[in-house]
Amino acid sequence: MVYSYQIVKFQTISLVQGNHWSQSVNDKGVNYKSLKDPFSKIIVQSSNNSKKLYRVPKDRTVIVTNDTVHFLGELA
Fold it and tell me: pTM (2 decimals)?
């Protein structure tokens, strides 16, 4: 698997299997941490209405700020 840093302007975000994530809030925004080994999945619908499924490796954090999501992951 090859993971790269993703920055996506989004309309909606869906966490696949919500129990594979933990949530926290800090000054950077809302954080979702991947808990499942080897990866958790997230669906991002971008502002142009295209939906993409990404894999986020275990113990990595997805940061949501305003209308942008930042994370290390790969397209599934």
Answer: 0.90
